[in-house]
Structures are given as structure tokens and as C-alpha cells.
Design a protein that fits this description.
four-stranded antiparallel sheet
């Protein structure tokens, strides 16, 4: 091909190339912003900890409503736990005592999920620590186990953060 027989300029094709280029750059920048924003706001890279935060939130909502059967089902990650209660060493009776009379903050009246952090071994961690403010300004740190969806209290360690808002 020489300059004398070069292809004819196609304005539509050039506009498409430009649009795809800028669209791709915008998509990469948006992904970077969303990823970093999730981390900076305390919800995990790309907000990946939100499902665990929602489970912990549902757990505390059930405790507030004094629906201990539902809270126990969320805790054990087994909606049909009543069909096989002998499967669990941690009984509903003991669970109810632990979250009412034996609780370090008393019965749960209010709660707010603050932040979460992936923790544990491996590249992506084995669990998530979810920080919850209950009954005003008491901080509880729940451990959400990724492999089976169960929860544990207390978490292996606490998170340092400012819970002013």
C-alpha cells in the first residue's frame, strides 16, 4: 500500500476507536476508585465484606427483636437447626443466656455495624472481623468464618477505629 492508494478516512470508525479508548480508561479508573473506596471506608476492597456485614446486622436485628431462634440460626448458619439440634454442642439455651443475662453489654437494645476487616491466614484471609457498636457506645467484634458462614464472639483481636459517627 502506498500513499496514493491509502484507505479512505472513515470518521465513524475513528470515533468508535476514540470512544472505546476513553471508555476503557474510564472503566479502569472507576474500578480503581470503587476498590480503594471500599477499603478506605472499612468495608473491604471492592466492598467484598458487605455480605458478612449484612449477616452480622441481621443477627443483631434478631437479638434486638428477642427472636433468639432466628439469631441462633444465623449464628450457626443453619436455618433448619431445629430439625437436628443434637448436632450442636452449643445449645439454644446457652446461646440465649450468653446474649442476654451473661452478655458483657446486657441484652441488645440497639446496634450499628461500623466497619469490617478481612483477617486470618492466606491471601484473602479465612474470616472477617465485623465491628458493631451496641447499646450506645459499647464495641463488640464479631468473627465471621468465610468457609462455613458461622460466627464467633469475641473475634481473635479488636480493630482500632474511631466510632464517632
Amino acid at each position: 500500500m502506498t500513499l496514493l492508494n491509502a484507505p479512505k478516512y472513515d470518521a465513524g470508525r475513528e470515533k468508535l476507536k476514540t470512544t472505546l479508548l476513553f471508555g476503557g480508561i474510564a472503566l479502569v479508573l472507576l474500578a480503581a476508585v470503587v476498590g480503594v473506596a471500599g477499603f478506605l471506608t472499612g468495608h473491604g476492597w471492592f466492598y467484598t465484606n458487605l455480605p458478612a456485614e449484612h449477616r452480622v446486622d441481621g443477627f443483631f436485628k434478631a437479638l434486638e427483636a428477642k427472636d433468639y431462634n432466628t439469631a441462633y440460626a444465623i449464628w450457626m448458619n443453619d436455618a433448619d437447626w431445629q430439625k437436628h439440634p443434637e448436632k450442636f454442642d452449643y445449645t439454644l439455651k446457652r446461646f440465649t443466656e450468653d446474649w442476654t443475662t451473661e452478655s458483657p453489654v446486657g441484652p441488645i437494645r440497639t446496634h450499628k455495624v461500623d466497619i469490617s476487616k478481612t483477617d486470618g491466614t492466606g491471601t484473602f484471609g479465612t474470616g472477617i472481623i465485623v465491628a458493631v457498636r451496641v447499646n450506645g457506645d459499647h464495641k463488640l467484634f464479631m468473627w465471621y468464618e468465610k468457609k462455613d458462614g458461622t460466627m464467633t464472639y469475641p473475634a481473635p483481636h479488636i480493630l482500632q477505629y474511631d466510632a464517632t459517627n
